Amino acid sequence: MLIDVQRRLAMPQFSCRHFMKRFHAHLGHIIRDELNRQQRTVTWFADNINCDRTTCYDIFARKFVNHEQLEKISIVLHHNFFRDLAEYEDGVVKKLAKSI
Fold first, then answer.
1. What is each CA distance from 86 to 7, 19, 49, 89, in whole angstroms?
2. SS3 of 22, please?
């Protein structure tokens, strides 16, 4: 019993990157899906985040996006991707806690 409690208390703190890698979340796909849901074109998206279309396709292929770029994308698409990450992370933490 004591060992089980110690193991729960010593649960390591994982970064968003760790959660996404372990549980296969793909931020680029999430961004692309939101763009498609809003029926926006890649050209529109590229113009609004000040890059070219090939960079947009590169973003869609990425598992991770830096904070500054994600903030700009969130503003342009009027969608809080940081909240999505937090909710995803919260769900993963609950799953990990249940498995321990």
1. 24, 11, 23, 5
2. helix
